[in-house]
Amino acid sequence: MSARWSEDQWGESEQRLRRKHTKPAGRRRITDLTAEQPEDIADDMIRRLTDGGFITEVLAELKSGKEATAYIANTYKGTALLKIYRDFAARSFKNDAIYREGQVVLDERAARAMHNRSRKGLEMLQFDWVMAEWAHLWHLWQAGLSVPEPLVGPHPFDYAATIPAVLMRLIGTEDEPAPRLSEAKLTPEQAQNAWNQSVQGMADMLRLGYAHGDYSTYNLLWWENTVIIIDFPQLTTRQNPNFRDLLRRDAESLSISFRKHGIQETGESTLREVQRRALGPGPAPRLVLP
Ligand SMILES: Nc1ncnc2c1ncn2[C@@H]1O[C@H](COP(=O)(O)OP(=O)(O)O)[C@@H](O)[C@H]1O
Ligand SMILES: [Mg+2]
C-alpha cells in the first residue's frame, strides 16, 4: 500500500482520536505481546487447521510478508497455499481506512471498538479483513475469473473456522510454486500476452463491481502462460467513495509495473481499455456445489 494513502483525512482524525484515548502503558503492553507472538500464532493456527482436518501437513514456508506469511501445505484436496495473517495487534489498520470507507457497521458497540482500536476492536477489524479475503476469493472464483481455487467453503460458516488463515489451491507445484509476474522472465510475446490477460483480469473484476486496490505484477502469478490474480482483502466496491481513485491507482500501478517487461502504456490508456473491456463479455461462471 502506498504511503500517500496513509495521509487521508479519515486516517488523520482517527490518529488524533487514538492519541487522546490510548494510554502509553497500553501501547507498550501490546508491543511486547506482539514481539513474542508471531511464531505462536502461526503454530497455534497450524495445529487448529490440522486438528480440524483442513490441512494434513505444512511442507514449507514460501514467503513472509508484512501482514501474513505464506506456506505450502498438503490438504485432502491437493497442495495448498496457506496464508496466515499475523497477530492483529501488530498492525494499526490505519492504512486500511481508505478501503473500508463507505462500509456500514450496524452494531454500534462494534463500530466504536473498531474506531477506538481497542484490542477487541482490532480483533474485529482483523476478522473482517480476513473474512473479506475469503468472500472475495469465492465470488471471483464462482464468477469464473483467473484466481486460485478457494479450498474451504463456499459457506462463510465453513471458512470462518479458519480465520486468521486463508487456504487456496497452490498455483505451480510444491517444488516450483508459480512466480509473480514481477519476478518472471518473459519473452516479448509472453509479455504482451501477460499484459493482455492482466488488463482483462482487471476488467473482469470491474464488471463485477470491484477495484482490486493493490493491482500490480506483485499480485499477479504467472504459470503455464496464464496470469492468476491473488491477494484480495482490500477489494472495494462503488459503495466506497474512493472507488474511482483506487481504480485509477490500480491502472497506474499495473502499467508502471509492466514497464520492466517492455510494455509502455500509461495509467490513463490502461484505465480506458479496462473500462471498455468491462462492458464486453465476461468469463463463464464456475458451478460450485455447496
Ligand atoms: N495460490 C497461490 N499459489 C502460489 N503462490 C501463491 C498463491 N497465493 C499467494 N502466493 C505467494 O504468496 C505471496 C503472498 O501472498 P499474497 O496474497 O500476495 O499476500 P501478501 O502480499 O499480503 O503477503 C505471493 O506474493 C505469492 O508469491
Ligand atoms: Mg501480495
From TrEMBL:
* Family per similarity comment: Belongs to the protein kinase superfamily. RIO-type Ser/Thr kinase family.
Task: Enumerate the catalysed reactions.
Answer: L-threonyl-[protein] + ATP = O-phospho-L-threonyl-[protein] + ADP + H(+); L-seryl-[protein] + ATP = O-phospho-L-seryl-[protein] + ADP + H(+)
Q: What SUPFAM superfamilies does its record include? A: Protein kinase-like (PK-like)
Where is the stretch described as Disordered?
A: 1-34
- Coiled coil ranges: none
Keywords of the record, alphabetical order, are: ATP-binding, Kinase, Magnesium, Metal-binding, Nucleotide-binding, Serine/threonine-protein kinase, Transferase
One annotated GO molecular function is: ATP binding
Residue limits of the RIO kinase domain? 25-276
| The enzyme's E.C. designation | 2.7.11.1
Name of this chain's protein: non-specific serine/threonine protein kinase
| Basic residues composition-biased segments | 17-28
